[in-house]
Amino acid sequence: MAAEGQPETRSDKMRIFWVIGIIVGLVILVYVWYTSGTGGVFAVLKKWLFYAGIVVVIGLVVYGVMKLLAKPKIDLVENDRQDIIDAAILSKPPMVKDLYFTGDKDHGEFRVGYIIGYCQLQSYKDLDLIAGLTKVQVEEMEKNNEVPSQFIIKEDCFVFKKMSPPFSMFEQPKVLRTLEDEHSQLIGDVKIYGVSMIKKYGYYFPNRGHLDIARIDIAIIREAWRGAVFQFLKDMVSINQRASGLDSEFKKDMDKRKLLKIPSPLGEEESRR
């Protein structure tokens, strides 16, 4: 149930609907059993199962048609996450096994799941700062033993699943993004130096770094921005192909030309040649 003063969510409404439906069904079964005995109860249950099967079949058909006709939604953050999963599964070192969190003096070590993929990402903390550096500024940084590469963040991405095979086939892969110094060596069981993990934007991060804006927010936003640019370039082909259909005046003019053109019994000049 929703908290006092807060609107009910969709899940709350569905829960109320199911509770009322179950209560009404039980009342009907008790009344049938009281009036017609056990045989009447079985007859009612048989009818309910029959009608429920019809509703399920119709619902699946409607759902399938809606899925086919619905315009696909583009989730740029999810696309980036799926790209990381695909790359990590292909580049997983064969020696890594399970994923653990070490905890601390008050929290014991615990297993998170088994690793199915690993890859490393590199991104800048602030791309605007790097892009805005002039040649003179870069030279000044080099004199002070500072280079733009110091602004680079190297993240290790572990793709894991909680359940073991064969039950893991029904579980979606999860991505944990850590810094190089936040985990043990990539040999055997990998241990993350932390108490727990926090989920942000579909990814998991160790609890110590979930507020690192430069590491999380800027990286996710930049990756989504790049995905938007690539998606726009990809859609340009279909936009150009449909340009004539989008311009109604141009389409009308083309249709008029086709109607006013008088066909020749000898065919087109190029065909006669």
Mean pLDDT figure: 80
Question: What are the low-pLDDT stretches, counting only 5+ consecutive residues below 50?
Answer: 1-7
Count of structural domains? 2
Please state the CA-atom Rg, rounded to the nearest Å: 31 Å
Distance N to C terminus: 81 Å
- Helical/strand content category: alpha+beta
State the order of secondary-structure elements, H for helix, E for strand: HHEEHHEEEEEHHHH
Describe the structure.
- The relative contact order is 0.09.
- The strands form 2 sheets. Strands 4-3-2-1-5 form a 5-stranded mixed sheet. Strands 6-7 form a two-stranded antiparallel ribbon.
- The chain is an alpha+beta fold and 273 residues long.
Keywords:
single chain, 273 residues, alpha+beta, 2 domains
Write the layout of secondary structure elements.
Elements: H1 10-69, H2 76-90, E1 96-101, E2 110-124, H3 127-131, H4 135-143, E3 152-161, E4 174-179, E5 188-192, E6 197-200, E7 203-206, H5 217-241, H6 243-246, H7 248-260, H8 269-272
Parallel strand pairs: 1-5
Antiparallel strand pairs: 1-2, 2-3, 3-4, 6-7
Quick recap:
The protein is an alpha+beta fold and 273 residues long.
